[in-house]
Automatic annotation (TrEMBL):
UniProt entry keywords in alphabetical sequence: DNA-binding, Transcription, Transcription regulation
Domain HTH lacI-type: 3-57
Organism of derivation: Winkia neuii BV029A5
Sections of the chain in a coiled coil: none
PROSITE patterns for this protein: HTH_LACI_2
Taxonomy of the source species: Bacteria, Bacillati, Actinomycetota, Actinomycetes, Actinomycetales
A GO MF term: transcription cis-regulatory region binding
Protein name: HTH lacI-type domain-containing protein
Amino acid sequence: MQPTQQDVADLAGVSRQLVSLVVRGDKHVSPTKRRAVQEAMASLGYRPNAAARALVERRTRTIGLVTPGFSNPFFGDLADAIRVAASERNLTPLIGSSASVLEVERSVIDRFIEMGVDGLILTGSLLSPETIAKIGEQVPVCMLNRPPAKGVVDAVLCDDARGQQLATEHAVEAGYKHIVFLEDEDADIPQTSAHRRQTGFLAAMEAMGRADEAVTITVTGRVSEAVLQAFDIFNSTDVAFICHNDQIAFEAAVEIMSRGMSLGVDVGVTGYDNTALASFYSLELTSIDQGLARMARGAVAMIESRQHGHHEAGRTQMIDPTLVTRRSTRRRVWKK
């Protein structure tokens, strides 16, 4: 027979009500009693009944994360950060992929709502602000790297403009003659991270008195073609590529090295997101770190506050990015 909370209480020498508080993750239970209850639960093999708890608490202690997919390692890193942040609050993340298809995204969200998730974290969403606002009326919603929609929808954003400014300033200081921004196809769409990164690049070039030299190339196909296009524009390979993300930077670096050029010495490359691709041992890409742990904790905290009665208008938390320098831009160190 499955052990009950009363069995746990009897073994731990506490009341059943206190066992219930421990199961719910109540922070007011003393460490000593919490430990006694947890040891009793482990000894008896007690597992809380999630369905019964959901009925009592009127919540499932789950959060739905919807991403465009996982071909970009950034979203895998994000999912892991959300998992850690959720576990710190005794929550379980459920993960769904939209495959960057609007109808699929809406279907995943509807399914999560049917499952009774406590809130939704959306990243790379294709939904309109109006649609997101309506969803926010049904369940707490936090957007990642996109400004909040109307209503009570919250958002956590990396300061992408600042991040790309850091990358651009670093490339100029390293001594590269020409600076090129390899941008995403969404760079001209307001409210997107791609647009904010483009804005940061152009602002940095202007601040350094080099606005007329700022070149942006939209990556619509093979990154190698964009790299060769830049070399043709300047009739030179003394170029630093500031890339929209680590995926583009990785492909650019591979193309550069395949042509016998020294990464960092002859040509500079900077990525964005600081994923595992950036620290790949044979490339060592300089990259911008968005602070995923802080971003994830902020998003989960906002969902929790909505669950606890916060009904004010949408809030925005901005995360400061950091520049992580590696071999791909260390011209001053490597070039004689």
